[in-house]
Amino acid sequence: MMEYLHTMVRVGDLDKALDFWCNKFGLVEVRRTQNEAARYTLVFLAAPGDVEKSKGTSAPLLELTYNWDEHEYGGGRNFGHLAYRVDNIYETCEALMKAGVLINRPPRDGRMAFVRSPDNISIEILQRGDALPPAEPWTSMPNTGVW
């Protein structure tokens, strides 16, 4: 038997990362540990719909690893991307834009979008169920940067 546990990403600024992942992207901190001797902090985040499952061991989690003495990491795309399913991709992207997040690949197809975290981690946002009908401003919005 195999069970998916979490994805770990290293972050250079824990406060900035938590502002993005929790305040803007909407994840919830469910657990935090600090190791004084090894000088790191681990913060585990869950999607709102997975918070109850996270109290056991069955929820997929995002682990933010903050090494106190390291603050720059390259190659945020070297592992691919994280993916989250949402109820309304247009509302999610609009809320992210209002929070100052750049939509790198807009949801022109009503099904998929990409953004990046402050640490350059690529995040795929997928529409739950069928794609939404194409709508503005998304339909004519160009890609920006890479994802």
General description of the model:
- The chain is an alpha/beta fold and 147 residues long.
- The chain folds into 2 domains: 6-67, 2,3-Dihydroxybiphenyl 1,2-Dioxygenase, domain 1 (Roll); 82-127, 2,3-Dihydroxybiphenyl 1,2-Dioxygenase, domain 1, CATH 3.10.180.
- It contains 3 helices and 8 strands, in the order βαββαββαβββ.
- The chain has a 4-stranded mixed sheet with strand order 1-4-3-2, with helices on one face. A 4-stranded mixed sheet has the order 5-8-7-6, with helices on one face.
- It starts with 5 loop residues before the first strand and ends in a 20-residue tail after the last strand.
Proportion in helices: 10-25%
N- and C-termini, Cα separation: 33 Å
* The CATH fourth-level homologous superfamily of the largest domain: 2,3-Dihydroxybiphenyl 1,2-Dioxygenase, domain 1
Give the overall pLDDT as a whole number.
89
Question: How many DSSP-defined strands?
Answer: 8
Topology:
Layout: E1 6-10, H1 14-24, E2 28-35, E3 40-46, H2 51-54, E4 61-67, E5 82-86, H3 89-98, E6 103-105, E7 112-116, E8 122-127
Parallel strand pairs: 1-4, 5-8
Antiparallel strand pairs: 2-3, 3-4, 6-7, 7-8
